[in-house]
Amino acid sequence: LRKELSPGRWTLLEALRAEGKMTVYALAKQLGRHYKNVHTDVARLIEFGLIEKTKDGKVFVPWDVIAAELRLAA
Fold first, then answer.
1. pTM
2. Is residue 9 within 8 Å of residue 45, measured between CB atoms?
3. Which residue among 2, 26, 37, 41 has its CA within the 20 to 30 Å range from the CA of 59?
4. Can you list the alpha helix ranges (DSSP code H) found in the chain?
């Protein structure tokens, strides 16, 4: 989980949560990152259920808080 939520992806989540629904292109432009890299990050975060996509292709973060529970093997 820590690998998947890199500082870049965390910044992406924060920006998307603050700005609301937008295209991946607009998000990449706002973050000053290459579209391909942002697209890859967004696709991965969608897989994890941290980002959702609207029917018209915009992405958004529907959560205020992300909580994880990690159990250590006994």
1. 0.85
2. yes
3. 2
4. 7-19, 24-31, 35-47
